[in-house]
User: Which sequence fits this backbone?
């Protein structure tokens, strides 16, 4: 299987589809692989052949395929992800521990029944299983959420990890390789808090935008948690940062899906505000094949919103962070209050990274706000509200320079997958070139840039350099390249690998 560039995204989707089919009936078993006459498991056999065997893929023993998948689930997934993958594929990784805790009946129901029975047992014993295995508790999903989104997300994550995993020591033995000792889990370094939105996205994938008073057929549909705040939090957690989200989430069924999703992605939800008797905000997205899209937002901001007092209640947590990621998804007065709060003790405050999308439509921002922003990550058109009314084409350069005069420390203006950096310490802006992707910059790409910028600043003792900017741009390119995936946010290894293959590597 190919494992580089945009082809990797296709391989992940292909492999996830294989795992999705192999989860049915009794799951991923040696007997099922041996009886496969359709070549369904060929991508898995190719992975094993490439890493452990010198012979052809069709000669790979079925047991070797199961060992590879089981090792990846054990070593590269965690918590709820690991449990879900183990149960739906019927791998039996937790069988011994669960047999000791509950006896044989529960573990047999988890691993030996048909897929529907395994799901039913998993959902009915969700908290008990997490407690017995020492995994952090998460909100139990409903059957629809498990079938419709969680299982597929876990299988795509597993597929990506199978493809990106470090090759073990090369060998030509035709025997099943010995399982590797799991590497110790490293604690996240750096503390990030994101203040922004958490919504549900209804995403339609279409060939072309319909003309007025016409319709078009979608070739794909996805209902999943979204919002810039949520996506930036997931992206930061994916990079190994200890991440919390400050957002308002409704207490309806979709709100539960959002909370479950965040916890599955390793984001701390203790700072999330739950709003009773309310409806989850939605974003409708029409997305074309190459990634360009239009969106319609229903924020329900009168009912589901962060308020200034919520920020005050979280003061100690906010000021203890290394980096604060702040989006314009919160009301303008809350955004400005948050900036004021974290600057109350200038010598002990987080670096502040702000995303100004979507710009506030009817409310201008006070110019003195920019003196409280360390990094503004913007598209050129988002600066339009700060431009004076004047004839002729819009030019973001004089506006960018004006923002620095009013106190902004650094502006990263995202352009075609790269960025132009304006900074108070530079006489002239400098450009970070893009790393090519066949897809246009997806909305999540900027979120990956913001998270990677936070990680780079933390790693570099809060100092911004061109290397930090290049690494953040590489993360943005990874997210754009992987945008068809349910979770396109890259980990550090993915960013480093892309950067190493690019002409930007040093």
Assistant:
């Amino acid at each position: 299987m190919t494992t580089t560039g945009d082809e990797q995204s296709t391989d992940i989707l292909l492999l996830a589809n294989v795992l999705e089919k192999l989860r049915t009936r009794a799951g991923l078993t040696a007997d099922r692989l041996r009886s496969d006459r359709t070549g369904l498991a060929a991508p898995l056999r190719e992975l094993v052949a490439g890493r452990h065997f010198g012979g052809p893929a069709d000669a790979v023993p079925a047991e070797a395929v199961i060992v590879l998948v089981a090792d990846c689930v054990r070593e590269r997934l965690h918590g709820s992800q690991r449990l879900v993958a183990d149960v739906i594929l019927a791998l039996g990784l937790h069988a011994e521990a669960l047999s000791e805790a509950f006896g044989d009946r529960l573990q047999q129901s988890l691993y030996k029944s048909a897929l529907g029975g395994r799901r039913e047992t998993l959902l009915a014993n969700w908290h008990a299983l997490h407690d017995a295995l020492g995994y952090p508790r998460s909100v139990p999903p409903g059957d629809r959420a498990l079938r419709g989104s969680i299982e597929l997300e876990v299988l795509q994550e597993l597929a990506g990890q199978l493809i990106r995993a470090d090759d073990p020591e090369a060998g030509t033995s035709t025997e099943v390789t010995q399982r590797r000792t799991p590497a110790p889990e490293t604690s996240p370094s750096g503390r990030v808090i994101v203040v922004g939105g958490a919504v549900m996205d209804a995403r339609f994938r279409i060939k072309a935008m319909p003309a007025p008073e016409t319709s078009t057929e979608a070739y794909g549909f996805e209902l999943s948690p979204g919002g810039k705040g949520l996506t930036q939090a997931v992206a930061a957690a994916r990079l190994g940062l200890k991440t919390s989200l400050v957002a308002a989430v409704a207490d309806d069924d979709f709100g539960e899906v959002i909370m479950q999703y965040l916890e599955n992605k390793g984001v701390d939800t203790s700072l999330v505000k739950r709003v009773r008797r309310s409806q989850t905000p939605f974003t409708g997205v029409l997305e074309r094949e190459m990634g360009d899209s239009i969106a319609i937002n229903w924020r329900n901001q009168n009912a589901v919103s962060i308020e200034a007092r919520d920020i005050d209640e979280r003061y100690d947590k906010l000021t203890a962070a290394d980096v604060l990621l702040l989006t314009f998804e919160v009301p303008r007065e809350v955004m400005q209050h948050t900036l004021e709060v974290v600057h109350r003790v200038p010598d002990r405050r987080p670096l502040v990274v702000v995303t100004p999308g979507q710009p506030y439509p009817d409310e201008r921002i006070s110019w003195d706000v920019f003196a409280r922003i360390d990094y503004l990550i913007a598209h050129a058109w988002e600066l339009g509200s700060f431009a004076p009314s004047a004839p002729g084409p819009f030019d973001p350069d004089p506006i960018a320079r004006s923002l620095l005069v009013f106190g902004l420390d650094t502006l990263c203006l995202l352009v075609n997958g790269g960025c132009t950096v304006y900074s108070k310490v530079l006489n002239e802006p400098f450009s970070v070139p893009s790393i090519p992707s066949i897809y246009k910059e997806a909305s999540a790409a900027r979120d990956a840039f913001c998270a990677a910028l936070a990680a780079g600043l933390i790693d570099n003792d809060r100092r911004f350099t061109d290397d930090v900017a290049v690494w953040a741009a590489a993360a943005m390119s990874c997210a754009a390249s992987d945008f068809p995936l349910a979770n396109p946010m890259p980990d550090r290894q993915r960013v480093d690998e892309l950067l190493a293959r690019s002409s930007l590597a040093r």
